[in-house]
Design a protein that fits this description.
The structure is a single chain. Helix 10 runs antiparallel to helix 11. It is elongated, with a radius of gyration of 21 Å. Helices cover 79% and strands 0% of the residues. The chain is mainly α and 212 residues long. The chain is built from 13 helices and no strands.
């Protein structure tokens, strides 16, 4: 990454009004999780070029990572206005709306993202979370089932899915989902840990000790 930064800065030194170099520099900062520096680079690129949905999307992602959701929402909206079929932007918008407790609106935009690209598990996870936030347990479960089909190796899907049933006090069902996840990714310690908690909740201490 340091060498990539040096290369982009050299390109900028040769031609400061080169938007691609500033945009590429921003992407390097994103990879380093230096989101404030990335924003500065993306904003510079934006000033040098015609309005670009990719740049607005990148700005939205950076503000989302900084938990500045209102600013993120603004840039995702700008990206969508330029490209009405930009599934990443609809996803970002829906994710941020759910984070600011506007879950009904979030569902609408997340469904739009999925209509454009139904093979991205992140979209389905976000939809499952938003559906559960408004009390649509059945719809949330359907979305998690789709997530599992797309990305069975992602432990967060199994964990979040099990928590839906745990919150509903269906502890056996929650544990069954975790067990499926453990079979899929047995090396994941977090799923084992939560299995311990679920078993303790049911008073099954000997089984809990085995998982622990």
């Amino acid at each position: 990454f340091d060498e990539a930064i040096n290369a982009q800065e050299y390109a900028i030194a040769l031609q400061d009004n080169f938007p691609n170099a500033h945009f590429a520099l921003g992407n390097v900062y994103v990879n380093q999780e230096e989101y404030s520096k990335a924003i500065a680079a993306f904003m510079y690129a934006s000033d040098l070029e015609e309005p670009n949905p990719d740049t607005f999307l990148s700005l939205g992602v950076c503000y989302e990572k900084l938990k500045q959701y209102d600013k993120a929402i603004s840039f995702f909206n700008k990206a969508i206005k330029l490209d009405p079929e930009f599934d990443d932007a609809f996803y970002g918008l829906g994710f941020c709306l759910n984070m600011v407790e506007k879950s009904y609106e979030a569902i609408m935009f997340l469904k739009k993202a999925i209509a454009l690209n139904d093979s991205n598990p992140d979209y389905w996870i976000a939809l499952a979370d938003a559906e559960y936030a408004v009390g649509n347990v059945f719809s949330s479960v359907e979305a998690y089932e789709k997530c599992i089909a797309l990305a069975p190796g992602n432990y967060k899907i199994w964990l979040n899915y099990s928590l839906v049933y745990f919150d509903e006090e269906e502890y056996e069902k929650a544990l069954d989902i975790l067990k499926e996840g453990i079979e899929e990714i047995p090396e994941n310690a977090i799923l084992q840990y939560y299995a311990v908690a679920y078993l303790i909740k049911q008073g099954l201490y000997q089984q809990a000790f085995k998982y622990l």
